[in-house]
Amino acid sequence: MRRHHQRLLAAAVGKAKKTSLLGVFANFALAVVKLVAGWAGHSFALVADGVDSLADVWGSLVVYFGLRLAAKAPDARHPYGHGKAEPLAAATVAVSLVISAVAIILGSIHRIRTPHPPPASYTLSILAGTFLIKELLFRYIRRIGRSIESLAVRSDAWRHRSDAVVSAFAFVGISIALLGGPRWVSADPWAAVAAAAVISLHGFMQIRPAILELADMAPQPSMEARVRKLASGLPGVIGLDKCHVRKVGLSFYCDLQVIVKGDMTVREGHRIAHEVEDEILRKVPQIVEVLVHVEPEEELSRSPSATRSWPRVAAQKR
Fold this sequence. Notes:
The protein is an alpha+beta fold. It has ten helices and four strands; from the N terminus they run H-H-H-H-H-H-H-E-E-H-E-H-E-H.
């Protein structure tokens, strides 16, 4: 079962690393095109878009190496593995979004105050193509991130969406500058300011879940409900007390208290604990480790959180 989980984890990490490398190459190519075209075409919005794409290259590399570290097996210094590297990578990418947004705003303010020629019309076609590419990348990478439950990959996807947003704002700003004439030249850098505000919002939205995961926030209630259902359905388990599930990188860890008959031998209780562990690991492949604590049936009356498996108790009495 652990080998099965390792295979699933390796497959998930493989998908995640492929999306990260795809982002690295796509962002680098787009950054070069946008920086050159923006500089030659007098469009600061396009230059800001290119800077954002260049930052995306770094962000994708952070995700790539963060996932490689998170997938490493536990060792003597890290007995619980290296899974925390995954939300750390996500937090780093989110912070970089905010930093790049601040840099774009500062550059745009300087551009607004400084006289400059209107942008070239050919920059619009570059922005339209960039928007299409980045939106497709966002949808693809977000789908992969959701399928493997990777916060870092989802954060990387939002970097692509932020780039698409910058391109959309830049397209509008350059269009206004071209149609409005010299009086509307500043629409180009103002568009970059608006885009940066959206980027910073995305960054703050991605920081929160990364911090919560680092703080061992519980996953969706559906996973705990599934674990409880599997454990309570096994012979010998007459109730459940605490059930805690936490996410570490791409894996989940579970701590569970099962209640058995008080006159049961240590050997029988040990056997039931192993059956509970094996059942959960077999039916919920995302969970890599289950710690089962056995409690006597007296806990049903002592603990307010304990729940009894009534049908099973009735069957045992008969």
